[in-house]
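Let us practice reading a record.
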Amino acid sequence: MATPDDPLSGPLPDTMRAVVLTAHGGPEVLEVRDVPRPVPGPGEVLVRVGAAALNNTDVWTREGDYGRPGPPAGWRGPIAFPRIQGGDVAGTVVAHGEGVGPELVGSRVLLDPAVYDSERPDALPVDILGSERDGGYAEYVVVPAVRAHAVGDSPLTDAELASLPIAYGTALGMVERGGVAAGHTVVVTGASGGVGLAAVQLATYRGASVVAVSSTGKIDAVRSAGADHVVDRRAGDVVEAVRAVAPHGVDAVIDVVAGPTLVAGLDLLRDGGRWVVAGALDGHTVPLDVRSLYLRNLVLVGSTMHTPALFEQLVEIARAGAVRPVVAATYALAEAARAQVELAERRHVGKLVLEPHQR
């Protein structure tokens, strides 16, 4: 049964403040409401949300636009309204349901937002917090206990921890599937965005030399994140600019942009190199001569999010504070709509984060 008290603030309230997505549409469909506090069921824990980071998935879910034909939908298809968004959550466990021991209560945790297709370490996500089920744009959230990972005395703040799951989980999946290792030369496109900046930091953490592709005004911030070279995507031919700083080719490309660069840039890869794509900001349909792949043993990989084993790696990184996410700004719950607008405008570098108990 659930434990009755919140060790941070006394008895648990019956209601909580939350940002509720009422329909697909513009920022106006996000409403701040008082709603019933969720109660953990069997195998679940209740988490007091310390911070919830924003992601592009939040905007695309609100808009109902994941680029697929058909009526508006979320990540996996139609979603039920009202829905509380927010897949990136860090906080403290304050209650548990049946079948869960009390050990986690009082623990600072990082939440894995995924539900997987199996119990294998390499299982793939089939559901995500804040899309198929209520997430962290609220003062409290319920999750399966197995997805709440204690981070102990991590030196990272809650806002930094909350920046990790989706962006850094996606980036870690790309880096892993790209076989990135010490001594490699790696290109990261879209390097000032959430996933791109995470990939710069994680590839650097693995000992790779990073060539980042970013935009004017964000180059210094991307370089500060660990990039050895930064190419301005607005200053000319990106592929030739990368070739100029990596004349002997690259081992992997971590790509969230796709579009024409994917086709033109394949020649940058050394034989046996890997191009990993997890986004299509510059276009999702490209003409590809498959001979450019098989004649040089190149590998083109699609990558979505992380696996349970990769999330365990991410938790270890979080516990050690080995990678420190860049937090661009924090907001109160009442500012969620404005935060999503600013996210979509892409003028920032790093993560935008809600702090639900901030007043």
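A brief commentary: The CA atoms of residues 282 and 301 lie 17 Å apart.
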